[in-house]
Amino acid sequence: MRIVKLTKESKSNILENLLKRSPNSYGKFESAVADILANVKSRGDDALFEYTRNFDKADINPSNIVVTQEEIDEAYSLVDDKLLDVIRKALVNIRDYHEKQKQYSWFDSKPDGTILGQKVTALSRVGVYVPGGKAAYPSSVLMNVMPAKVAGVEQIVMCTPPDKEGKVYPTTLVAAKEAGVDVIYKVGGAQAIAAMAYGTASVPKVDKIVGPGNIYVALAKKAVFGYVSIDSVAGPSEIMVIADETANPRFVAADLLSQAEHDEMASAILVTTSEELAKKVSAQIDEFLKELSRSEIISKSLENYGYILVADSIDEAIEVANDIASEHLEIVTKDPFNVMTKIKNAGAIFLGEYSSEPLGDYFAGPNHVLPTNGTAKFFSPLSVDDFIKKSSIISYSREALELIHNDIETFAKAEHLTAHANSIHVRFEGDK
Fold it and tell me: Pairing state of beta strands 388-395 and 328-332?
C-alpha cells in the first residue's frame, strides 16, 4: 500500500481522486436509467415485468410478484439457527439505539392566547430497496427498516430482485420478517425504484425510498427525488483511520481491508504520525492479501483509492480527516476521546482499538447507512428523523393578534404584498 507524506499538494490530489467516485460522475448511465423510469411510469406493470425477464431472467407477474408466507416459512428453514439468533440480537441493539432518537410533538402556550408548536407525524408508506445479485445483505435490511419502524411508519414495503427461479435470498426474507416489513416485492434495479416512485398496478407508490444499490439504482433514486423523498445517493464505501505510534498495525491493517473488500471503488486511508507504523501496516496488508478471499478486489481498491499518509502531528491528521469527511472514521490513538472532540466531519466515529468498523456494520446499534464522498460535511446517518415530518402549529387569539397586527401589515407592505397586509387588516378594520 502506497505511503505518502501528507502535504497540501498530496491532500489536494487525494481529494480530487476520491471525488471521481461520486455517483454525480456517472453521467453516461443516466440516459439508460431515464429510459427505464419513463417506461415504467408510462406502462406500469408491463414494463416492470419485461425488465425483470430481461435483467433477472425471472418470470414475474401479478400472481407471484409478492413474496408469500409459504416462501418466508421456507426461508426460515434454510437459514442457520445461529445466524437467526445473531440477527435477532443485532435487531434489538439497532431498535434500542434508534428509540433514543424519537421526537415528539410539542406545544407552547402563553397567557395572551398565543399557542405555537410542532406536530410530528410519521410517513405513511416507505419503500426499502435491498440489493440481490452476487450477495445477500440482511444487515442492510435491519438498518433501513428499524428506524422506520421505530418512527411509526404505517406501511413498510421492500423491493429486492429475484433469481431466475423467482426466489429471493432466504437471509433477506428472514431479516425482513424479523424487522417487520409488511410486503416484499420480487423486483430490482432502476425499475423497482420507478415502481415505488410512481406506483404500478402491483407496486404501490411510496413517500420515501431508502436502501443501497448499484449505480443504476443510485441514479434512479436521484432522478425520482421530488416525486418521492430519498435517503441519499450513496457512493462507494470508505474508511479512514487516524493512528499514532500506540496503534496495533495488525488491527489497523485488518480494519482498512474490511472496507476495501466491498468493491474496486472503495477507499481505505490511514493517517498516522508514525512512519514506523505506516511501514508495518503496509507490510501487514501484504500478508493479509495472501489469505483473504476477496484479495483481487481489495488490491484494485487499494491501488486506486488506498493511501497511508504520514502526518507531522495529530492536529494535521485531524485536519485532513475533516477535509475528507470519511464515511467511517476510526481513531486509534493514546487518547481517542480527546481526538474525537476535534472531529467535525465523519459519518460514524469508532474509538479505540476494539471498536473496529464491522462492529457498526452489523451489531452495535447505530445505523450503518452513512454519508459518503465528503457529504458527511452536511449529511447525517440514516435515523428516525428520516421517517418523520414536522408541521408547524400556530394559534393566536384576537387579543394576541391585535397587539402586533400593525407590525405584520408594515412588513407585508414593505414587500409590496398588499393582499397579505389586507388579510390581517380586515380583522381590525372596524377598530379605531
Answer: unpaired
